[in-house]
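Journal club side-thread
Mid-discussion, someone asked how the predicted structure for our own chain would compare to the paper's figures. Pasting it here so we can look after the session.
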Amino acid sequence: ILKMATPVALFLVVCCLNCLSSVNGRDAGVLYEAWHTRATKLMEAVKEKNATQLTVETVIQSNGKYTLDDVFSSVASMIGPEFPPDIYNVQPQLGFYCLYRPRPGENSTMPPCNNITGIATAHAQMLTTAGFDYVAVDLTNWPIYNENFDVTVFRPLQVLAEEWLALRKKGIKTPSIATWPDSLCGATTCSGPTAAWEWLLANFYNNPAYADIIYTQNGKKVMFLPNHETPAYNNATLVQEISSNGGRNDIVVYSMWAMFGTSDYNSGTWGFFSFCMDNMKPTTSMVDVPPCNQSGSTSLDGKTKDFEISASAAYMMAQSALPFANPGHMRGLTMQRLFQRILEASPEHIFMSSFNEMIGGRQAAAYPANTAMNMGLPHDPQNKSVWVDTYASEFSRDIEPTVEAGDKILRVTTSCVNMYKNGQTCAPNSTELCCTTDDKMVFANAWSLKLGNGADNLVTSSQVEATTLLKEGWVENCNPIPGPSVFCTNPSLTDGRAGPFMLYNKQDVEGVSTKGLYRCLDNSKKHFLSADTKCEGKGTYDALVGYMSSTRGREMLRALFRCVVPGGYSHSLDLQCDTPGILLGYVR
């Protein structure tokens, strides 16, 4: 769907030589993942078996040909504690990669990753071109240091630093590095050589080999802790112990988290992503809503409001794989709307998430609805084990170019971050990719309404019409997952098939084969949906709802069926009607 014509190699050639350093007192950071070792080793093993390398996105696009069970079926004997089955949501354009290699003289059971220098070089060029001054390496799921976790994240952190320091010696710019470890301390100070933060101080922050790569503010090295409170965990003793760093007094600690309230922003906690707001409430809706106006964080000394503001390619308010829990990329619309506030406020710091998550945790669906499942996988045996933070190619915070989605989000990021650093806004720069709308405003909301007595059901993409019909006694079918503000939500629903959806607002959408969705009236004046302007000879045309995708995947994951119900017609999303209905197309 997104523009695929700009491969990574070409993107890197047009490297901006002045994008790295802080500009006009403004700097930009991004969350970075180094946890791909085991997932990549599994994908390499799949390739060695001459089996198909599948991602979540390619399984969805197969439309039932493959299931998630097929991803590692050829290497099932490797699955276990050493190789947990983390499935890549998408394939990076650079290929499946990782950054682990043993330390010199170290006897490790894990073989080194391939092409580490090539990956680290490509990432440095992408990130500096995009305007990022530093990355924060995500260590939040590893509160202690052990051999297993060393392979997963701690050694890859060091390898990344070693590779980027080597590039700097060659005159190649790279971002600096901060860390974001969990302490698992709560309100009690934890200490000891296995505590992640102590290991990091001893082996990274205080290691002279890495001194030149560590991100600093006002001469102090930065460490983030994953908590909504400032001081982190409401534990001033712990924060002071880290800050003092054995008497060096050279660390500044920021709490950084998401999904928290105004008081925490005001106390100095950073957001690694922040919600768009609608009528003072968080929302995943990006169409038919006011500007995002996300919250900003105050400086630790309380003197500077909007000291840090976050933006992201997407974000989640519930489990990302569920309908409307995550706004998705929307061709850069989500990021564009979040950057509107950044460009206007011009904070000292911005933080984005994330560059390259790609894999992520799963858990049981948190809601009872039959549609509370991995979207686009209605009959997959794993469809109720849902992804939380990132899902498929669309519902992801990542900006790294992928095989399935191309490089559009990285290009939007590059435009937005460099506009921020140069103090620009969209008013005089309407041709900037951060500002253009024709390429992004291609989506429409579709409200699902019914007469109170069930005598009729209809769908409309007009907010005005929906509002009018509700005043006339129609009732809205709600989304069973919290998130959207343009639609009603009801998390207690057990059947979400007739709920709202989204589709395209125009026929010609780059990279997509579309077909129209029309609202028709039968001879008894009951509404029904059709993909035929002539309503298949069953009635008369009433209204154009919008345009569907002809295939499943990327932006449009859910099948839309027309159903026959007692007294008329309805629709069903992803799951079949009670009586098998007609597949019309694919929607969001």
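Post-session note: The CA atoms of residues 138 and 577 lie 43 Å apart.
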